Amino acid sequence: MDSKPQNAELPFGSAPQFRLKAGLFPLTQLDISDYEHSCFEQQLRAKAAEAPAFFQHTPVVLNLEPYQGTLAPPVQEMAALCREHGLIPVALRSPDDAIQEQARACGLAIMPAGRPARETADTSDTSGASETAAAKAEPETAAPTSEAPTARPSKVIDTPIRSGQQVYAAGGDLIVLSSVSAGAEVLADGNIHVYGALRGRALAGVRGDTSARIFCQSLEAELVSIAGTFKLDEDFRGQHWKSAAKIRLDEQTLEIQPLS
Fold first, then answer.
1. What is the distance between the alpha carbons of residues 226 and 252, in angstroms, rounded to a whole number?
2. What is the DSSP string of 83-100?
3. How far is it, in rounded angstroms, from Cα 83 to Cα 101?
4. Quick one: DSSP state of residue 44?
5. What's the N-to-C CA distance of the chain in angstroms?
6. What is the C-alpha separation between 99 and 70, in angstroms, rounded?
């Protein structure tokens, strides 16, 4: 007697019910350098009062890489405080194994460590030592090359970006020759240029390029961000609203200026 199993029907039919697909979803990162329950809660409440629209079911990554405390912070308690004020912790970033273990127990994903900060010269040194060091770092002669310098690629969109759409320029600039609608999202590793109205969300330098810029003919965005530092529309509805503007990162603050 043939004992080979017969082909049985799949319990939910033969058509696939889902597929795994990579996607780019920028997340707000909450950099935490210290933690004391009442102080942390007060500061969260104050920030939520400043930008109530942003603190509405916003997914965040708890970044504890800058944490300076001697004891591991209570991750579950910290996450609960965030939820009380509208933030939804979805992941944690920390090199500490004990903190990571707490995060796993809370159901949080573990994000990879961030890239180390680039070393910069000490501009406060007026003795000329930094200039000497910089001179030593430079090669004595430039090696001749026949190759042209590599240009940063640009992604050009010549149609309006509608609500619900997300457009990302990987490795370069994003140029939108039309407008960006409310509810849309535009992202670029480099600069963002919008030749119409910029509504929705615009995130430049999403991989950490602090030199990235945002340019638009009419600033009406819900959120603008460069290298993770952001401003909400409440912050620029006055002087720069519905005007041509350029946005850059100055230290840890977004600076908005007229586009002349």
1. 10
2. HHTTEEEEEEE-S-HHHH
3. 20
4. H
5. 87
6. 12
For residue 51, give the DSSP letter: -
Q: Round to whole Å and give the CA distance between 169 and 205.
A: 10
Instruction: Output the CA torsion 217→221→226→232 (10° steps).
Output: 140
Chain-centre distance for alpha carbon 160: 23
Helix %, strand %, coil % for the chain, to 5? 15, 30, 55
Q: What is the DSSP letter of 74?
A: -
* Side chain identity at residue 6, one-letter code: Q
Tens place of pLDDT per residue across the chain (260 aa): 555 555 555 555 678 888 776 566 667 888 999 999 999 999 999 888 877 767 778 889 999 999 988 888 999 999 999 999 999 999 999 999 999 999 999 999 998 876 443 333 333 333 333 333 333 333 333 343 434 445 568 999 999 999 888 899 989 999 999 999 998 999 999 999 999 999 999 999 988 899 999 999 999 999 899 988 888 888 888 889 999 999 999 988 899 999 87
Of 194, 134, 184, the C-alpha closest to 164 is 184
Q: CB under 8 Å to 66, separation ≥6 — which residues? A: 31, 32, 33
User: What are the residues facing 174 on neighbouring strands?
Assistant: 155, 192
